[in-house]
Design a protein that fits this description.
The chain is of the alpha+beta class. Helix content is 29%, strand content 24%. The longest helix has 19 residues, at 277-295. The protein is globular, with a radius of gyration of 20 Å.
Length: 320
């Protein structure tokens, strides 16, 4: 628990005094906020009610010189055991889906679940997002990594995105300004995406759902089910598959502490019970080193690794 009078408690007090609406917590365990179920505490965890309150939060953090990290629903993310210094933001309340035109343009909140959006559009008879079925995470996270599959990716339907910046200002940027590539983007520095605009095409709802059901079945059979994980760990190298390389290197089923390379798909690491971030990182380091030595391939991480290895309290105790 963070004591009153500490910098984070003071920041929380200032944010509340500014009229901020939403949820604010100190020392929130990130294991509760990630699909890996792993991670130490965030100094400040915030769920702003809307763009105006996100702007307040961004300004206060900027003036305090604190970093801001947006986590979506915590997929594609590994938080180190020491937690995250600064402000962690969830956009869970940015969950609106608004039609902009009857021809298939929609404005979507960054907190909307990616595959929920795909199913909602299918029900309304709009095609173009079928590929998003069983892709975890939110629309905001999908924008950061241009999430997709061989069947498609977000940039195929994206028109523009709105951002809140550290000074509290709001800007809309077109797709061409966002540098979207294979599992990557070049979003504006400091900008927090709040909505995206997409353009879909009319289609037959039954046919769209049929394609989605087939894709869901295919992916369900090839990915670990019912066990905490963060999705694919590595991007596929050119002309090959990360999972094939990891399996060929003998890592399928390998464990470190509570972390295990999935026996279903080697490009997934699962929390088999009580895993720490250090366990996952030990496996990742071994995989990357072996892939480089045996195959001459530098595996590029798809998962984001954030936070500190050791908590501030542990550093203080170890120095006493």
């Amino acid at each position: 628990m963070t004591p009153v009078g500490c910098p984070m408690a003071d920041l929380k007090s200032r944010i509340v005094s500014s009229g901020f609406r939403g949820e604010l917590r100190l020392g929130e365990p990130m294991a509760n906020r990630t699909t890996f179920k792993i991670g130490g505490p965030a100094d400040v965890f915030a769920v702003p009610a809307d763009e105006a309150n996100l702007a307040v939060l961004a300004r206060e953090a900027h003036e305090a010189g604190l970093p801001v990290l947006v986590v979506g629903d915590g997929s594609n993310l590994l938080v180190r055991d020491g937690g995250i210094r600064g402000v962690v933001v969830s956009l869970a309340r940015f969950d609106g889906i608004e039609p902009l035109s009857p021809r298939g343009a929609f404005r979507v909140g960054a907190g909307v679940k990616y595959q929920k959006l795909a199913y909602r559009m299918a029900e309304e008879g709009f095609a173009g997002l079928e590929f998003a079925v069983r892709i975890p995470g939110t629309v905001g996270g999908a924008l950061v990594m241009n999430a997709g599959t061989p069947e498609g990716e977000l940039k195929d339907v994206l028109l523009a995105a709105a951002f809140i910046f550290p000074d509290g200002s709001r800007r809309i940027l077109l797709k061409e300004d966002l540098g979207l590539g294979y599992r990557s983007s070049r979003l504006p520095a400091g900008g927090i995406a709040t909505t995206i605009d997409v353009l879909l095409s009319k289609g037959d709802p039954d046919e769209i759902r049929g394609r989605m059901n087939w894709l869901a079945s295919e992916r369900r059979s090839k990915q670990p089910q019912g066990v905490p994980n963060a999705g694919s760990i590595y991007k596929n190298p050119p002309g090959d598959f990360a999972g094939r390389l990891i399996e060929a290197a003998g890592f399928k089923g390998r464990r470190a502490g509570g972390a295990e390379v999935s026996s279903v798909h080697a490009n997934f690491i699962v929390n088999a019970g009580g895993a720490r971030a250090a366990d996952v990182l030990a496996l990742m380091d071994a995989i990357e080193r072996t892939a480089a030595e045996r195959f001459g391939v530098r595996l590029e991480r798809e998962i984001r690794v954030v936070g500190e290895d050791v908590s501030p309290e542990s550093r203080v105790r170890s120095s006493e």
